[in-house]
Design a protein that fits this description.
Layout: H1 23-39, H2 43-50, H3 54-61, H4 70-87, H5 98-113, E1 116-120, H6 127-137, E2 141-145, H7 152-163, H8 173-184, E3 190-194, H9 201-214, E4 217-222, H10 224-230, H11 238-241, E5 244-246, H12 256-266, H13 275-285, H14 289-304, H15 313-322
Parallel strand pairs: 1-4, 1-5, 2-3, 3-4
Length: 330
């Protein structure tokens, strides 16, 4: 299933430079080559990152550009600096929550019984992060994050790509559908569709046929709108609803104990925190994992603790109100 990625081949520096390459340009080329080799990133990846034509960047870095290469080299340098800043961001390790337990249960039951499971929840509850964690831990788990109005054509093309099907992109829908079935049958795979409520009705029906013919489990994940779409009896998606064997209650947010565990993990380097810290962060996030993990904690680290050594309620208030425009709790 799929194709193995070719091993990284180090980029070699030119043995000599043309006369129009200044010392600065030569050094910059060597710096970029060193960066790519250290980070094991290919030239094509860097070209896409800095929005420079692949052939142009290759010639510029390899000393083969006919004119001054500096404009292209500087774009590449700026892109590597931004990338370094992104990788220096402290990621919060995955913390098991009540929502992730439900998400894992959906995945396990759908895979085991080779049928549908539905995971619904309010925005920001951590559904997607939980599903990605399950995918990372379990082989033969495929995940598609649907785009608004995703059609059958787009759905099948995505599946063809992630499965590595040997069928042309220009092939018709039936050919792609059969190639997908060939790849999935007998594999015990699990297919996760995130934001499933945004798929077109026809695309959802294609998923039903994939489940029936390939014998794989499928998790449909989304907001409370997904429930409204599939739940009605004798509705358009009655055939999908009848195949769902696990459909837990819509998750409305993380619980206080979930937030406490996340906060403790995120600030583990600061030692034991005063209870007032977790109390205040809980007041601000109101059960939204996204607000806590993606907004509050990063802002406190980057904007607050960068200027002050001690994490206090006053610091949290300052960051929340000034950097995130949140209202201070009563």
């Amino acid at each position: 299933m799929g194709h193995a990625k070719a091993p990284f081949k180090p980029v070699e520096a030119p043995a000599e430079w043309p006369a129009h390459y200044s010392e600065e340009a030569q050094q910059l080329c060597c710096d970029l080559i060193s960066w790519m080799n250290t980070n094991q990133q290919r030239m094509s990846w860097l070209a896409k990152l800095c929005r420079v034509n692949n052939g142009t960047l290759y010639n510029a870095i390899k000393g083969r550009y006919n004119t001054d290469p500096m404009p292209h080299l500087k774009k590449a340098l700026d892109a590597t600096r931004v990338q370094d800043q992104r990788t220096s961001i402290r990621d919060i390790p995955f913390v098991e929550t009540t929502v992730s337990k439900i998400a894992f249960a959906c995945c396990e039951r759908a895979r085991r019984y080779r049928t549908f499971a539905v995971l619904s929840g309010f925005v920001g509850t951590g559904k997607t992060r939980s599903l990605k964690e399950y995918q990372a831990r379990n082989a033969n788990t495929l995940m598609i994050e649907a785009n608004p109005g995703m059609s059958v054509t787009a759905l099948l093309l995505n599946l063809v790509k992630i499965l590595g099907c040997s069928v042309k992109a220009s092939a018709n829908q039936d050919a792609k559908f059969e190639a997908i079935l060939d790849e999935l049958q007998g594999t015990g795979s699990l297919l996760i569709i995130d934001e499933a409520e945004t798929l077109t009705p026809k695309a959802l029906h294609y998923l039903r046929r994939i489940r029936d013919k390939a014998g794989v489990g499928i998790v449909l994940a989304g907001t409370e709108g997904l429930n409204a779409l599939i739940k009605p009896e004798h509705g358009e998606f009655d055939q999908i609803r009848s195949r769902v064997n696990f459909w837990p209650k819509c998750a409305q947010g993380i619980k206080r104990e979930d937030a406490d565990a996340i906060i403790s993990t995120a600030f583990a380097d600061l030692g034991e925190l005063d209870d007032s810290i977790a109390d205040r962060l809980w007041q601000y996030c109101g059960g939204s994992m996204r607000l806590l993990v993606e907004d509050l904690i990063p802002a406190i680290r980057d904007y607050g603790l960068a200027q002050h050594d001690t994490l206090t309620v006053q610091l949290i208030d300052a960051v929340a109100t000034q950097a995130l425009s949140l209202a201070k709790p009563d």
